[in-house]
Amino acid sequence: MQLSAEERLIRLLNDLAASNFQITADQRVRTFGLFMHLTLEDGNYRRLNRLGNLLGPVLCRSAEEQVRFRSIFKYWFPDEQPPEVMDNREDDGETVNVLRALAEERKAAVSEAKQRLFKAQQVAFHRHVRLILTFVLLMFLLSIATHFTLRYFAGSDVSVNTSDVRVNTNAQQQPGQVAPTAPTIASTATPTATIWPSPQPLPTTVSLGKPAETDNTEREASFVFRWWSAINRTLGPATTLVLMIPITLLAMAVASSKKLLSAYARQTQVLPTKELRNLLSQGINCLEPGERFYHDVQPLRRRIDLPSNDLDVERTIDATIAQAGAFSPVYANRRASPEYVALIDKRSYGDHLASYSRSLIHALEQAGVNVVVYYFDRDPRRVTLGSGHHVLDLDDLAYLSETHRLFIFSDGEGFIDPTTGAPFKWMNKIQDWRRALLFTWKAMQDWNRSELLLETRLGLRVLPATEEGLIIAAFLFDSELSDLPTSRASSPRSFLPDRKRLHGFFATSGWRWLDDIAPPKEEISGLIARLRAGLSPSAFEWLTALAVYPAMYWSLTLYLGSRLLSSATKGGNTFQSALLEIARLPWLQFSHMPQWLREHLMLEMSPEQRDRVRTILEQLLLTVGSTEVKDVTMEMGIHTDEAKRRLLERLDHDEHRRDQILIDFMTRKQAESSDFLLRSKVARALGLHTVDSPLRSFFSRKDLEVMRLSASEIASFIEKYPPQAIFTTWSDYYPARDQVLELTKWIDRNGMAAVPPFKLCFIKLDPRDSTRMVVDDFSLSLWKRRKRLTLRFGLLGLAIMAIALSLYGDFWNTVSTVGTGILTVTAIIYVPPILFWLLLIRPYSRMIKNFPTVSERLLGL
Amino acid sequence: MIEVRPYTGRPSPRQPHLPVALSMLDLEKAAAPKGYIPDEGLVDAVNVALLLQQPLLLTGEPGTGKTQLAYSIAWELGLSEPFVFETKSTSLSHDLFYTFDNVRRFQAAHKPSQDIDPRLFIQFNALGLAILRTLDPAETAKYIPAGAEMHQHPQRSVVLIDEIDKAPRDFPNDILNEIEKLYFRIPELSTGTIQATQTLRPIVVITSNSEKSLPDAFLRRCIFYHIPFPDETRLEEIVLSRISGLTAGPNTALSGILDFFERLRQPLADLRKKPGTAELLNWVAVMVGVGIDPAQPLKSQAEKAVRTLSALAKHPEDQARVLGMFKAWIHE
Predict the structure, then answer these.
(1) Closest Cα in chain A, distance from residue B292 (Å)
(2) A336 close to B (CB below 8 A)
(3) Pairing of strands A379-385, A390-393
(4) Across residues A125-131, what is the average pLDDT?
(5) Which of A26, A62, A327 minimises the CB distance to B106?
(6) B209–A390 CB contact, under 8 Å
(7) Least Cα separation, residue B281 to chain A (angstroms)
(8) Cβ contact (<8 Å) for B224 and A57?
(9) What interface predicted TM-score (ipTM) does this complex get?
């Protein structure tokens, strides 16, 4: 049913309201007034194809809302089609032509979209059909082979001719009578032969040479069951069942993963639906402070006296009289709402601590406190406003906001000079603000000399970055205490043993745990043990759940926490303290968790936890919509850059969007740690070595061609611009940034479809390892194809099994017990793949491991 | 005869007898409102604001033409130049309408024989002026000193409140009703409300650099538009409309200018202050001034162009970076 323009407008407004647009009744009235005016008035707006441009300014209040408005508007008024309210109007020729042209355009667009959809469906359908046909063919071959083998070993001279076969299941049946039950093939040469463990006596006769005297329909019907019967009779029901288990499991795995994959793959280009937004808001709501907080922070709003240039008339008169008529101006103080500048230490784009601090400030804003937020990275001498467009020096900021109060959200580590142990000299600039507070993320038991120095040397009062900390700040400002009580003095002393103190542990070695290259297993075990000991049980569970999803988003973290923490622990400060516990960890500060850690953390989950997390994520993923808008909440991975996306698509088609660990988790499979085949593929594609191997035939030519092209592009780039060192990392802030920027310029100049090196995914040297091993995210993307390879190997195993079964067909006659039979079948199924692994794949993988790396070959390292 | 020459940095031993004439660029065209080219969305936003008679709040990067829009509106609608209120960090709500000079008032009080007319100490500011100009001249007489004439007949004006985000937080909160209904009071004169004539309501354009968020109640009373940075085609159009003597097309100086400018705006350039449209126009004007041949590629005239780069960089570290990028760009 097509909606009228007015109805669409109403739904548009409702959608906007659901998307957190604050639309007042007044705005609604103005919107409708404007709409009616535009539809009724003659003039420039008769075409109404710029309706979005006109409504946007009325309904939006920020640049971000302006972008979101366009996407939602396009949904209700696609292609800026003129609402049909105009269609009925008698209009001049020009308008009619425009409407007609737009209608045609729209029709063409819809038609094209339909064609594309049909093509995509076709491809998907063909893939499934190919898969099913492959299985059917295999089963067919298996039964054929078995049948002929049995015939051969039984010494039968029967030749099978489908057209000549007459099926008869009972010797007593009259000629021409059709078998009433499952038909079987019988041989006159083995009238009494029984194939173990056949439950029924075998049929005894078959007529050859003459066409069966049955009608065609019945014969066709019986034909459907013939091969099944042959297999069943040949192998016996139990054996068939055993045989079918792996096949069924394989088929189920493929089917289920396909379904999930398609759901996950949608995530890269989606706008969160209303349901998703609702779900994610559950987590955000958990951070919502109680009513008492809003009441307690009101002193932060209390008006204060500020100097002004206005004369205080009364006092000036008094002063002038007192001075015997000599003009004696007395300037008045103006009462004004206090304003606050908040500096948030933000280490990375997705820094959870920064987001947490922002949420605290948001709560203050909700309480009516005026706060302007700036961000900095460890060193506050340069601060940025929001998106980073406005960069300010601290001096400038101090000048612009000297009457403001200053809140700093940081752990304060960047304020202390590591060489002298004293605060940096430039920190004196903080003293330009009359009132400055440091809200630290560190747990009170971790407060140390740094906090003491900041308090004593700079007068920077330290408070915990929690709701309580803000309430204390309100109390302090309200009472205007010149000597604020030191929170530290009343802070609880630490009774935690050192091994449980995570702050010190990560303060010295935080960076190394962010690296994508896995440390030795012993160190990983030690790390996990430390995390388990240092975090509360609920925080640790939360952290393990975060490991499942490939990317870290603030809203997702909150959502998982809100669902995982039981209602008993979720309330009040427990949620906040657990959140702070995990947010202090380096992976959440830099919103990146390496694969190795994800794998190990997931192993720490109990089956119940796994089920719970799986359910939560499934619920979340199924709410993901599918529009073309890019402002993604549940975006997977980091592939937002257009150039990188294109490059990765060339490398890996769509599969880069899929995270194998997540998929394995959701499909209840364990992830494998490595994939030698993919490494070999990379090596071959890079031209480093050529290995003649039958395995090559398992790769499609298309895959190889794509890999070869991509790899040659990378190789030629490195040869052209041999870098001395390339470091990639998860953040813009790292020591080798200048070199990397230089490299970026090379890429840029060369016009390659590459991205800044700090996002460079396919080349990476380990900064710690002297061997300069190539870390192949490149091969990682290929590794994601292992499911396809697994399928191919599965099919290969089945084929081998079928041949083996045929060769050993004679063995059935000698089998006499059920146990021996099962063992035999099991051996037939599993021995060939094991032999295949031991004899062919394992030596091959060893060979691959010894390949020279790209860096060794091209950089001479 | 007056000598015309640029500054060379190598002074002759004797100072010229007469001040030398300077070779200065004619930037009148570059700043003229008739050369202003708004994007389609902005045009629509202006029309919505006019239709709904609400203030238009503009945000956007510095140099995207927020301030210039007010002049463009006034120009196109045949109104006089906009009244500009330059917001300061000490601005109070009544400053938008008038200021009362208390010091002079005190000074005047020292002459007791005279009857003091408080109207003498009032200075009307942007929105106050605009509101008064919508009234009949006879009606405004009670607010202005005797003998002074503000206007001859009621008329509409454009008011520009520039960079409102620089004001204290109370400022937008304190003018909510005034800006919606366009009225104000002058307690010092003990007069009633002065309200704009409905049919001649002033057109109010407010700009913000988004350095500070504005209260919701204020935003609700405004028509909002964020001016996006123009793409290369629009930039070319803007430059051509504002700077004369340039030619468009491939392998011209302008194409090179835009290419390099685009590069400077990339995040990879990592400049502290990204150059905006205003910087581009200045740069182009300076290059025209130093004699760049518009028909020749910029790379072939790099020696001249490199002397003009200071128009693009506003920070010391940016200057070195821009210079480095320019040299790299030339050698590509």
Answers:
(1) 25
(2) yes
(3) antiparallel
(4) 61
(5) A327
(6) yes
(7) 20
(8) yes
(9) 0.74
Q: Do A63 and B270 touch (CB under 8 A)?
A: no
pLDDT in tens, A270-316: 334 555 666 667 777 778 888 888 888 888 888 888 877 777 888 88
For residue B174, count CB atoms less than 10 angstroms from its CB and return exposed for 0-12, middle for 13-18, buried for 19 or more.
middle
Looking at the DSSP assignment, which residues form a beta bridge with residue A375? A344, A384
**DSSP 3-state of A755:** coil
Per the structure block, which two tokens stand in for A720? Answer: 């052209």
- Name the pLDDT band for A652 (thresholds 50, 70, 90): very low
- Are the Cβ atoms of A57 and B225 closer than 8 angstroms? yes
Q: Model's pTM, two decimal places?
A: 0.58
B211 to A385: CB separation less than 8 angstroms, yes or no: yes
In our burial notation (b when 16+ CB lie closer than 10 A, e otherwise), range B230-257 reads beeeebbebbbebbeebeeeeebbbbbb
Residue A248 pLDDT greater than 80, yes or no: no
Q: Give CA–CA dist A197/A186, Å, rounded.
A: 16
Interface of A with B in 51-70 (CB under 8 A): 53-54, 56-58, 60-63, 66
Residues of A in contact with B110 (CB under 8 A): 325, 327
How is residue A743 written in tokens?
């490299």
- Contact assessment for residue A23 and residue A55, using Cβ atoms and an 8 Å cutoff: no
Angle at A737 between CA A733 and CA A738, to 5 degrees: 145
Residue A191 has a pLDDT of 39
For chain A, the 3-state helix, strand and coil shares in percent, each to the nearest 5, are 60, 5, 35
Chain B nearest CA to A575, separation (Å): 30
Contacts of A741 in chain B (CB under 8 A): 268, 270
Residues of chain A contacting residue B212, judged by C-beta atoms under 8 Å apart: 372
Nearest-CB residue to A400 (from B40, B52, B89) = B89
Task: Provide the residue type at A588 as one letter.
Answer: L
Among B48, B209, B270, beta carbon nearest to A58: B48
**Which secondary structure element, helix H or strand E, spans residue A395, and what is its range?**
helix A394-400
Question: What is the distance in angstroms between the Cα of A697 and the nearest Cα belonging to chain B?
Answer: 44
In this complex, do B328 and A749 lie within 8 Å of one another by their Cβ atoms?
Answer: yes
DSSP reduced 3-state for A340: strand
- Cβ neighbours for B205, distance < 8 A, ≥ 6 positions apart: B55, B56, B58, B69, B70, B73, B82, B158, B159, B160, B161
How are beta strands B83-86 and B223-227 bridged, if at all?
Answer: unpaired
d(CA A522, CA A499): 16
Binary contact (B47, A325; C-beta < 8 A): no
- For residues A177 and A171, give the distance between their C-alpha atoms in angstroms, rounded to a whole number: 11
Top residue of B61, B106, B209 to mutate, by most chain A CBs within 10 Å, is B106
User: Mean pLDDT throughout B117-134?
Assistant: 91
Encode pLDDT of B136-148 as tens digits. 988 888 888 877 7
Whole-number Å distance between alpha carbons of B41 and B231 = 14
For residue A556, pLDDT beyond 50 = yes
Is the pLDDT reported for residue A657 higher than 60? Answer: no
Cα distance between residue A721 and residue A716, in whole Å: 8
Q: Which of A30, A49, A69, A745 to mutate to test the interface with B (most CBs of B within 10 A)?
A: A745
